[in-house]
Amino acid sequence: MCILKWGKIEVSQEKMLKVLTELGLKKTEAKIYFYLSKRGPKQAHEIMKALNMKKQQLYPSIKSLQNKAIIKSPLDRPARFSAIPFENVLDLFARAKMEEAKMIRRNKEKILSDWESINLPPLKRSSVFLNVIKGRKYVYSKIQQMIQETTSQFSAISDLSDLIRSEQFGVLDTIQSHPKKSVIKFRIITEAPKHYLKAIKKLSKSISPQLELKALNTNVGSSLVPRMVIRDNNEILYFVTERKGELKEQNEYNCLFTNYTTIVKPLSNVFEELWQNSSDVRQKIREIETGIFPKKTLIIKDSAEAQAKYNEVLKTAKKEILIVTSADRLKDFQKTLPEIRVLNSQNLSIRILSPITKENLKVANKLLSHSQVRHIPQGYLDTIIIDNDHLFQFSDPTSIMNGVETEQNFKITFYTDNPEYVIKAKNMLENIWRNSSDISRNSIESVFDPLHSFSLPPKSTSNCTSSEVLCDYLKSKPVVSRTIHGEVTEKEVVAKIIDLHQSEDSSSKVVKCYCKIGYAAINPPSQFDLPKMLIVITQIDKKSSFGAEDRLVFHIWQKTKEGFRYIPVAIIGDNPNFPVEILEKGQFNDTPAATNFQLVRREEIQFQLYGNTFLAHWTIPITLSKKITLPPGTVILEAYGEVKTKRVHLHYPTGARYDIFYNAFDSFVTYMHESSKYTGPGTDGLFLRDAFIEIFLP
Amino acid sequence: MALAKSLQSTFFFFALKEEAFKLSLKRVIEKLETLGLSNGDAMLYIYLAKNGPKKARNLSEELGITKQQLYARLKKLQEKKIITKNSQVPSIFCAVAFERVLDLLVSIKAEQSEAILETKKELLSKWRAVDWRNNKRP
User: Fold this and answer.
1) Which of helix, strand or coil describes residue B69?
2) Which of A336, A375, A469, A630 lies in disulfide reach of A356, CB 3.0 to 4.6 Å?
3) How far is B90 from chain A (nearest CA, A)?
4) B101, part of any domain
5) Residue A256 burial (CB < 10 Å; 0-12/13-18/19+)?
6) Better-predicted residue by pLDDT, B88 or A233
7) pLDDT for A38-79, tens place per residue?
C-alpha cells in the first residue's frame, strides 16, 4: 500500500482509478464511481455505454457500491445513480480501515481458532516411487533437497569418508539455512576409527550446532551398517554401492530413492536401534584420546544380534574359553565340534562344565579330544567367559552356539565386559571347576551289570591308580553264566513285587527279595585320599524272605589280572536275621566282602527316598582294607531320564542262581565326605527303583 | 434401528465438521483478501503455511498449477510480506505465521487509515484536477 507516495505521482485518470482500487474498490467499481463522480447522476444504460460494460458486470458492482454507501440510487424510475463526494469516500475508507484494524485486534483469538481448525486434506502427491540415483553430484543434491524438505526429522547413517566429503561439498550447510531448523531433529550416525581421529575432530567442529552427530560403538556389528538418508520417515535414500572401507577409494555413488513404506519403516527402525547403540561424537573423541572406553553391559533380546556379538567377541579370544552349559545343550555341541577343533588348534584352552548324562556322554567324550569337559550338578545358568574379559549368560544359548534359530521366545542374552562382573563370575566358575569331577568315559551300566560282573574294558582304565590290593579270587569269573532276557515291562516288574506281598513261600531254598538298589561310582578328588569306589545301597522290603534290611556294599577299584575291577570289600547291614551264608555262597563268594560283613545298629545306617532322590547315610567308619577306612558319609543318587526295565539271570560257580527283574534310572551321584562334597556325572549312578530278586541257593 | 440412528448422527457430525471447516476457511480467506489478495493467492498462502516450506517445483506439482501462475502468486505474497524465500537455488518458500499476518494486517489497516487522512487534502486537489475521459476504443 503506497497511498503516502501518491502526492508525488502524475495526475491522471489511471492514477486516480488506482487510488480507488488501493482504497479497497474493485476495478469495475472504481471506474463506475469515477465516472459518476465526474459526470453526475446517470442511468444504468448510460453507464454501460460510457464504460463499455455489460449488464452482468454492471449490476453486481452497483450493488457493491451501494452497500458501501458510495453511490446512491433515488427511488424514481428509471433510476439514476449518483456518487457521494470523493472527500466523503476518503473519510469513509479511513474510518472503515481503522474499524477493521480494531475488529481484527478484538477478534484475533477467534480468527486464530478459525485458522487452527483448517486442516487441509493431504494433496495427492505422485504415487509411490522407486528411483535409482547415480553419481555423487546427483546424490548430494538429492540429500540437500531432502534436508530442505524435512519438516520433523532427518536421519542419516554415513561412513566417515562420505560425511567428510559431503561436508566439504556444503551438503550439511543446508541444515544451517533451514528455516525450521530449530524444531527439526537432524541426526547422523557415523563411525569413529582411531586412525581418523584428526578428521573426526575437525568434522565435529565444523558441523551445524543443530546437527546431532553420533559415532557407532564399533563393536556392535559396525560392519553390517547400511548407509542411508531418511527424511521424515517418508523417504529414503539407500546407498547400494559396496563400501570399500578406505577414505580415498569411494567415488561411485549408487542409491535407491523411494517412499515405499515397507522399505522406509523398517530402515527407520534400524536407524533408531543404531542410534541407541551409538555415542556422542565428542564423547567418542575423548574415548579415543584417553584410551578409556566405557565398559558395557547389554541385554540383547535379538538372537541374531546376540550371535553377532558372540562371534565378534569369540574372534578376539586369545587365551581361554570357559563354558557352563546344561546337559541337554551339551548334546548340541556335536554341531560345534569343528569350531572347537579350530579354536583348540589356536592354542586356546577350552573348558566345558556340564551335567554329564548318558545321553550327552558320547558328545562329551568327543569334546575331550579338543577341550576339557567336567561334570557339574544340574541347575547352573548357561555362561560363557572369554579371556577373563567378556561374560555371556544366555537364556537360550542353543541358538547362539550353533547359529540355529529356535522357536523359543526367550532369547535374552546378558553380556558384559565390566571386569568387576567378569572376574567375580570367573572366580565362581573356577571354584565350581575345581570341585567338579572328571567325566567317566563309560556309563556305569557298561562297567558292570547290576548286581554283578565287575569287568571293565582294559583300555579305559589308564587313569586308575589304586593297585595296592590284588585279589586273586578274580582269577575265575564270579558269574559262570549270565542271561539277559528280552525286555520286560515296567508293569511286569511291579506285578512281581505285588505277588511277593501276597504269597508266602515256604521253600527255604528260594530267597525272595524286593528292594531298591542304588549304584554310585565315586571318583573322589585327591584331597579325599580315597580310592575310586562303587557303593551299592540296598533297601530290602520287610516282605522279603529275611525281612527288612538296609545294606551297603563297598567296592574299591583294583587292578586284577584281567584288568581293573570293582572288588566288593565291605558290607554293612542292619538285619541280624540275614543268613551270612548267602553272602558266602552267592554274589560275594570268594571276595573280601564275604568275610567283612558288619552288623550295625539301625540308627547307624539310614536310607531315605524322596521322589527320585535316593539317599544313604552311615554314621560309622567302614574298613575297606587294612590301609583304607572310609569315614562316615552320605551318598545321594538323583534319578533322571526314562525308566529302563530289564530281567537278568545270573548263575554262580557255587551253583547259586539269581533271577532279577528291575525298573531303573540313570542317576547323578553326590558323595558327601566329612570334609567336602563330590558330585559325579549322571553316568556314574544307577537307581533300581523296583527290583525283584529270586535267589536259588544250591 | 439403533445402528441407523448412530450412523445418521455420525454422518451429521461429519457434515457439521465439514461445514465448520468451510466457514473457518472462508473467514480466514476473507481476512487475507483484505490485504489485497485474491482468493487463489490466499489459498496458496494457507497451503504453504499449513504444509511447511516448499520449493516452487513441489508447489506447482502438488497444486497442479503452472510455474508461471505460481510465480505470479508467490511474487504477490512476497510483496505483501506474508511469505519469504531463501537465497538458495532453487529457492524455498516459507509462509509467515498466520498470527504475524494478523498483526501485519492490523498495522496496515491502521496505517492506511492514517495515510488517507494525512493525504486527504492533496488527494482531493488531485481528484478535482482530473476529469473523466472515455478510453473506449472506436
Assistant:
1) helix
2) A375
3) 9
4) no
5) middle
6) A233
7) 888 888 898 998 888 888 888 899 988 888 888 887 777 788
- Number of domains within chain B: 1
Range of the domain at B24: 15-96
Q: What is the mean pLDDT of residues A207-225?
A: 70
Parallel, antiparallel, or unpaired for β A677-696 and A510-522?
A: antiparallel
The C-alpha angle B13, B15, B17, rounded to 5 degrees, equals 70
Contact A488, A413 (CB under 8 A): no
Whether B2 maps to a domain, the answer reads no
Q: Which of A2-16, A182-196, A430-444 has the highest mean pLDDT?
A: A182-196
Phi first, then psi: give them for residue B70, nearest 5 degrees.
-65, -50
Residue A445 pLDDT greater than 70, yes or no: no
**Helix H or strand E segment including A582:** helix A580-585
Phi, psi of A289, deg, nearest 5: -65, -40
How many other C-beta atoms lie within 10 A of the C-beta of residue A170? 11
Query: DSSP code of A596?
Result: -
Cell of A478: 564270579
At A616, list the grid cell. 544313604
Closest residue of chain A to B116, computed from CA coordinates: A94
pTM: 0.44
- Kindly report the CATH number assigned to the domain that includes residue B50: 1.10.10.10
Vertex A192: Cα angle to A186 and A197 (nearest 5)? 115
Q: How far is A41 from chain B (nearest CA, A)?
A: 14
Domains in chain A, CATH or no CATH each = 3-99 (1.10.10.10), 130-290 (3.30.870.10), 297-438 (3.30.870.10), 444-696 (no CATH)
